[in-house]
């Protein structure tokens, strides 16, 4: 009797599994707008009859990635996991711990629908596609609080130079001119933005892509390093840690501006602020029409279970589907990875980004050009620079060249 | 004694055979896990391993990079500051507290519990609590300003020059009670006759403590020293919870450097090199201690 019950229960469980698979998906999207965005994916995936088991890891990518990597290398893989595409997961793929999505990608023609193509190329290793790109984030933005400039009695700047000129007026009005969270990646992001905007996209490519020391010592980078020192002066007095706390200060008008990726837009949206009225966004610091194509992607660890594998493929298809792309990216404040979707709901800032994506200059994200090792060393160097007023630009330049040389 | 040794020599290996068999699993664990894996780490510190270990030997390259890396040098410097402050203050404060406790005061149990209580908290909790206490907008500084002392400034965690002292304060709060209890146990072990003798000789109490009792506490002191020092070398969670290495990289410590290299930078080789340097440091502390503790006894 007892045995029969167990048998029945087992059969029932197997029966369920054939129709619906629980997939654990890990990611580090925990701020208000990020959580709202990822819920869109969960909703779309649940609609297929499977179940999205949310594995959000609080902190930031720096906290979450080690957890993800150790779970995968330790033999307890999740069904899918976020990484920034580029070199972060490369060794996992090379070690055969990640499954190829080539069959899905070629069947559905990802190579034709993903735009710009470079975003899918970063998922490609040895001719096979290993990840689903889900969004395009451009890191190169300056976010300004219109209120803050009104309080200080100056016009809202149109570019970095005007912003620098407005700095003293902001200080006088008791407003922090520039906020950059005191975490290494944020300091590094500010540096990348300054290089791409002040030194220009060409120098940016030569510095980070070709690791050309001559360009680092050249006149364009001289200007960029000077701007970096100015940025340090303008952040003096702020001790904010998290990026979204810094954005909140811009939203409240306590700070004039923040250099941050376009995900900051999600925070403005949640605070019900309107682009152009309450806040202003300047891609490429208002100096150059550029976007970078960093972004997030989902990788699928190799799991030896045909049902899980099938569900993984389903999830990959959901993530790149036009409906999920629109719903997700509107919440997240990022741009979709395909050009054929309807984005009438996009706001002014996102439109600026989409226009540049279509007509302007597109530069590669830093994760696509530097190894995680070099990227983190750069972040350490930059956070040190921002926190030590005594550190000279020449010291930074020398250490920066060392990092680039080690990586090439 | 000598006779039994002579007759027992041929069978020495088999003496206490049951106990020896019972110890085999522990011996194997120690050999494979502690010795074996440590050696493995040392060997792979000479490779250029990335996210996964690779046998791509590069000689001393990882060590060269380690010792030319600002972050590592700052870590070492911070460990020295932290270690010296911790040793000096936890012993001085701990000893003074233990002496005060030793005065046969009332409610000794209550005071002892209060002073030992922080030790029951993990370093993570300690770090978070002291992060709040030292936060200029909510902690000590804002309370003092609330009392009307407007110019009061105390925010070590935002000042890269003194941030390590903010960490030391938290560590002392957590660990001093433990030192006190160990030393108090030692003090209780001092024979009453000694006290009577010094009293008859008319030696002041403080002199008795410093020149008679302290030398007699040597074994307890050495044990406490080793425990405290081992805690200093591996300090990680406190810094992560309290400052996360910041501001900038000014409160980085070696254990955090190892973790960051291995798991954030995906550079195992560099992390192994740094952890090998830490192993050497610990060996430098442990070997003389083991020699004093075990070597000395055999001679006596």
TrEMBL record, chain A:
Keyword flag tRNA-binding: no
Domain of life: Bacteria
Protein name: Probable sugar-binding periplasmic protein
Annotated function: Part of a binding-protein-dependent transport system for a sugar.
Pfam name, any one: SBP_bac_1
PROSITE patterns linked: PROKAR_LIPOPROTEIN
Family (UniProt): Belongs to the bacterial solute-binding protein 1 family.
PANTHER family referenced in this protein's UniProt entry, alphabetically: ARABINOSE-BINDING PROTEIN-RELATED (PTHR43649), BINDING PROTEIN COMPONENT OF ABC SUGAR TRANSPORTER-RELATED (PTHR43649:SF28)
Cell compartment(s), UniProt: Periplasm
Residues spanning the signal sequence: 1-20
Principal localisation: periplasm
Listed InterPro entries: Bact_solute-bd_prot1, SBP
Sorted UniProt keywords: Signal, Transport
Any single Gene Ontology cellular-component annotation: periplasmic space
Automatic annotation (TrEMBL), chain B:
Positions of the ABC transmembrane type-1 domain: 76-291
GO biological process: transmembrane transport
Matching SUPFAM superfamilies: MetI-like
Signal peptide range in chain numbering: none
UniProt subcellular location: Cell membrane
Membrane topology: Multi-pass membrane protein
GO cellular component terms listed in the entry, alphabetical order: plasma membrane
Keywords: Cell membrane, Membrane, Transmembrane, Transmembrane helix, Transport
Domain of life of the organism encoding this protein: Bacteria
Residues spanning the membrane: 21-43, 79-101, 113-133, 162-187, 208-233, 272-292
UniProt keyword Electron transport, yes or no: no
CDD domains assigned: TM_PBP2
A Pfam entry, by short name: BPD_transp_1
Keyword Nucleotide-binding set for record: no
Homology family: Belongs to the binding-protein-dependent transport system permease family.
Name of this protein: Sugar ABC transporter permease
Organism phylogeny: Bacteria, Pseudomonadati, Pseudomonadota, Alphaproteobacteria, Rhodobacterales
